[in-house]
Design brief:
The protein is an alpha+beta fold. It has 8 helices and 12 strands.
C-alpha cells in the first residue's frame, strides 16, 4: 500500500475504526465486569452485615456472646483487611464494638463521606482503612427504639476486586489484541479484493502504454465498468482522429509536391538564367521547409497513437549503422555499435529512424574515421519511475564550442556551407525529441569530436 493510495486510505480508516470500537468495547466490558465483581463482593459483605444486624437486634444479646468472626477467620486476624464495627449513635459518647482484626483502629463512616444510601437503606463505597488499606465497605443504620440506634459496618479488602478485574483485563487485552490482528488481516484482504478490479484496469493501461495490448479487456464490476468502456471509447476516438489527421497531412504533402516539382523543373530548364538559379535555390529551401513542417504536423497528430507503440532500438540502430557505413564508405568511416537488447522506445519506428538518421549522418559527415554509437535503457530515480532510453553518438571530428552547439540546434543554421544539407537536421531532432518528452544534449565526445546524446521515453 503506497502513500496517498486509495488502498492505504481504506485500510487506515478501517484500522482506526476497528481500534476505536475494540477500545470502547473493552472499556465497557471491563466496567461491566468490575461492576459484577463489586456486586458479588457487596453480596458477600451484605451477608455479614445482615448477620450483625440480626445479632444487634436480638433482645437476648449479651456482650460476651456478640459475634467476633461471623464464620470468617480473617475477622480474627489483625489488620487482615476484613473488619466489622458496630457503633451506638444515640449515646452521649458513641459506643464502638469491632472485630479483633480492626485492632485499635476504627472504620470511617460512608455517610460522613457523602455516600448516598440505596433503596434498602444501605450505603456502599470505597474507603481507606488501617495502614491505608483500600477497603470495600457496606454500612447500615438500624433503629431499635428504646434499645438504641446503631451503625453497623462491614468492610473487606478491595484488593480481591482489583485483582479479579486486572486478571479479566489482561485476558481481555490479549483476546482483543488477537481479534484486532485478525480484523486487520481481514481488512487487508477486503481492501485488496475490493480494489482488485482497479488494479486490473491499472495493469491494462500499463499494457496499452507498453504496446502489449490495444484495449482494456475483461469483465469489470458495475461500479467501474463505465470507466473501462469510456477508456476504450477514448482510445478508439484517438485512433480515428490520428488516422484522419495523417490522411490530411498526406494529402497536403502530395498537393505541395507537384507545384514544387514543376517550379524546380522549370528553373532547371533555364540554368544559365540567374533568376532561374535563384528560384531553384529558394524552391529547394521551400521543399526542405515544407518537409520539415509536414513532419512536425504528422508527429503532433500522431502523438495520440504513441500509446501502445513500442520500437526496438537495437534493430533500428543496427540497420542504420550498416546503411551509413555504405554511404560513407569512400571516406573510410567506421561505425562502432554497442546496443543493449532491452532498449525499447515508446514511439513510432519512423520517428526514431529520422532522429537517429540525422544524428548518425551528421556524425559521419564530420568524423575523420570513427563514429561510436551506444544505446542503453535505464530507470531514473526509484525503481517504479519511468524508463528512458539513452542513445549517444560520438565522432572523432573537430567538435564544436559551447556557442556553436547552441547555434547548430537552431532551425536552418549551418556552420559550414560546404557540407551538404539544409541545416534542419539537428533542429528536427530537437523538436521531435521534445514532442516525445525527450531531449537532445550536445557535449564533447571522449574520442575527441562531438557527442550527441538523445534521451527518449522507454518502455
Amino acid at each position: 500500500m503506497r502513500a496517498n493510495s486509495l488502498a492505504l486510505r481504506l485500510f487506515v480508516s478501517a484500522a482506526i475504526w476497528t481500534v476505536v470500537i475494540l477500545l470502547a468495547t473493552g472499556v465497557v466490558l471491563s466496567s461491566l465486569y468490575r461492576a459484577a465483581v463489586e456486586r458479588s463482593f457487596d453480596g458477600r459483605l451484605g451477608v455479614y452485615l445482615r448477620t450483625l444486624v440480626a445479632d444487634v437486634a436480638s433482645p437476648d444479646e449479651a456482650s460476651d456472646k456478640f459475634p467476633q468472626s461471623l464464620g470468617e477467620p480473617l475477622f480474627e486476624l489483625p489488620l487482615s483487611g476484613w473488619y466489622w464495627q458496630v457503633t451506638r449513635l444515640d449515646a452521649s459518647k458513641p459506643e464502638i464494638r469491632s472485630s479483633r482484626s480492626l485492632w485499635d483502629s476504627s472504620l470511617p463512616s460512608l455517610e460522613a463521606l457523602g455516600v448516598q444510601s440505596n433503596v434498602a437503606g444501605t450505603r456502599e463505597g470505597y474507603v481507606k482503612g488501617p495502614e491505608d488499606q483500600k477497603l470495600r465497605q457496606v454500612e447500615r443504620v438500624i433503629d431499635l427504639g428504646e434499645d438504641g440506634r446503631f451503625l453497623v459496618t462491614v468492610a473487606g479488602d478491595a484488593a480481591e476486586i482489583d485483582e479479579g478485574t486486572y486478571g479479566f483485563d489482561r485476558i481481555l487485552i490479549g483476546t482483543f489484541a488477537a481479534l484486532a490482528i485478525v480484523l486487520l488481516l481481514i481488512t487487508t484482504f477486503q481492501v485488496r479484493f475490493g480494489l482488485a478490479p482497479l488494479n486490473r484496469i491499472s495493469a491494462g493501461l500499463a499494457a496499452i502504454r507498453s504496446g502489449a495490448a490495444e484495449r482494456l479487456e475483461g469483465n469489470f464490476p458495475v461500479e467501474i465498468a463505465p470507466l473501462a468502456r469510456e477508456t476504450n471509447a477514448l482510445i478508439d476516438a484517438n485512433r480515428e482522429i490520428v488516422t484522419r489527421a495523417r490522411t490530411h497531412v498526406g494529402n497536403l504533402a502530395h498537393a505541395l509536391k507537384t507545384p514544387i516539382s514543376v517550379m524546380m523543373n522549370e528553373a532547371a530548364a533555364n540554368r544559365d538564367d540567374p533568376f532561374a538559379a535563384k528560384v531553384s535555390e529558394q524552391v529547394e529551401i521551400m521543399r526542405d521547409q515544407v518537409a520539415h513542417h509536414l513532419q512536425r504536423a504528422r508527429l503532433a497528430a500522431g502523438m495520440a497513437a504513441v500509446i501502445g507503440t513500442v520500437t526496438d532500438v537495437r534493430s533500428v540502430v543496427t540497420a542504420l549503422a550498416r546503411t551509413m557505413e555504405k554511404i560513407h564508405h569512400d571516406r573510410g568511416v567506421s561505425i562502432e555499435l554497442d546496443a543493449t537488447e532491452d532498449a525499447r522506445f515508446r514511439g513510432e519506428r519512423q520517428d526514431l529512424e529520422e532522429m537517429l538518421g540525422n544524428l548518425v549522418d551528421n556524425a559521419c559527415k564530420w568524423a575523420q574515421s570513427r563514429v561510436a554509437i551506444e544505446v542503453f535503457a535505464q530507470t531514473l530515480g526509484a525503481a517504479d519511475d519511468p524508463r528512458v532510453v539513452r542513445i549517444t553518438v560520438d565522432d572523432d571530428g573537430p567538435g564544436l564550442s559551447p556557442a556553436q552547439r547552441e547555434q547548430v540546434a537552431r532551425r536552418g543554421r549551418r556552420l559550414d556551407e560546404t557540407k551538404p544539407g539544409s541545416g534542419l537536421g539537428l533542429s528536427i531532432v530537437v523538436e521531435l525529441a521534445a514532442l516525445y518528452g525527450g531531449e537532445l544534449k550536445l557535449a564533447t565526445a571522449p574520442i575527441g569530436g562531438l557527442r550527441a546524446e538523445l534521451v527518449l521515453p522507454g518502455a
